[in-house]
TrEMBL record:
PANTHER family on file: CARNITINE MONOOXYGENASE REDUCTASE SUBUNIT, NADH OXIDOREDUCTASE HCR
Keywords associated with the record: 2Fe-2S, Flavoprotein, Iron, Iron-sulfur, Membrane, Metal-binding, Oxidoreductase, Transmembrane, Transmembrane helix
Keyword Flavoprotein recorded: yes
UniProt name for this protein: Oxidoreductase
Annotated organism of origin: Herbaspirillum robiniae
Transmembrane intervals: 109-126
């Protein structure tokens, strides 16, 4: 479906709120809490598809709202939506997709958000509040000025909200291990986390150490991204003999596909594990959210992960 930008405003120096409506003002398809919207647009010479969590109320079907963090080391989509997109522009979008739903067997919920990871949590917390189910929302950002959508945090009586500032001297930081203490014994407790890969990893590791079953841990990542220190990677595909040099700005999966290699894939966000590939040499930099520590010793997700420069990364493809 085609949507028109009816509002675009800065929430913080790095996060922009974008409101989308039908060009003719018609009602839009409804969605569940935690749903995301996939947009298609031209960013430079390329046409890209990007997924963004909806922050507008699910009951409000006259518009969709997303909050986008500008990422200089991303794939270009967020930079376009910050720097080039204007009110009145048209974008193509699919119907909202719900993959981050409230577990129906849950009776208590812990919601953990890091930075822009607050976006799906707003809907989840609102649904829990309306359902009368107890929850605790923990939201971490670098500073108060960078804590987007703070005014939309729930104020009701069924849950608690705790805020943390990682860049403030002497401020209390989120202790993930402490948050999960007690969950192992409470079989009805479910944990939701969205944010940087390091935060998701910390939650998964803490949950594993406490014997919390995987089906009670729900996470949503930001997909592939790059860091300032990333350098060119040399790939060697051991079965085909193909060698590739890949620069930051494209994923290893995309580079291999462009060169003619076939790798199974699905989410392309390091969550589903469809693209898991074994490796036999090199120094991978894991950025997935699906592999265990043990699996990372020999396996790799090329849709989001990277590798150290120098020694080639040997993928068994």
């Amino acid at each position: 479906m085609r949507l028109r930008v009816s509002k675009a405003e800065a929430l913080t120096p790095s996060i922009r709120l974008i409101r989308l409506e039908a060009p003719d003002g018609a009602p839009l398809p409804g969605f569940d809490a935690g749903a995301h919207l996939e947009l298609e647009f031209g960013a430079g010479a390329a046409t890209v598809q990007r997924k963004y969590s909806l922050v507008s109320p699910g009951a409000e079907w006259g518009y969709y709202e997303i909050a986008v963090k500008r990422n200089e080391y991303g794939r270009g989509g967020s930079v376009f939506l910050h720097d080039a997109l204007a009110v009145g522009d048209l974008l193509e979008a699919g119907a909202p997709v719900s993959e981050f739903r409230i577990a129906r067997d849950g009776r208590r919920f812990i919601l953990i958000a890091g930075g822009i990871g607050i976006t799906p949590m707003l809907g989840l917390a609102a649904e829990l509040e309306q359902s009368g189910l107890p929850y605790a929302l923990h939201y971490s950002a670098r500073s108060e000025a960078e804590m987007a959508l703070r005014e939309r945090l729930p104020q009701g009586g069924h849950g608690t909200v705790s805020l943390y500032f990682t860049g403030a001297a002497g401020a209390a930081r989120m202790d993930v291990a402490a948050l999960l203490d007690g969950c192992a014994a409470d079989k009805d407790a479910h944990v939701y986390v969205c944010g940087p890969g390091r935060l998701i990893d910390a939650v998964r590791i803490a949950a594993d150490e406490r014997g919390i079953r995987e089906h009670r841990i729900h996470f949503e990542s930001f997909g592939p991204g790059w860091e300032a220190g990333d350098e060119k990677v040399r790939l060697t595909l051991t079965e085909s003999g193909m060698e590739l040099d890949v620069e930051p700005g494209t994923t290893l999966l995309d580079a291999m596909e462009a060169a003619g290699a076939w790798i199974a894939s699905e989410c392309r966000r390091g969550e589903c594990g469809a693209c898991i590939t074994s490796y036999s040499g090199g120094q991978p930099i894991h950025r997935d959210s699906c592999l265990t520590v043990q699996q990372r010793a020999s396996s790799f997700c090329p849709c989001v992960s990277w590798a150290a420069p120098g020694e080639p990364l040997l993928l068994n493809i």
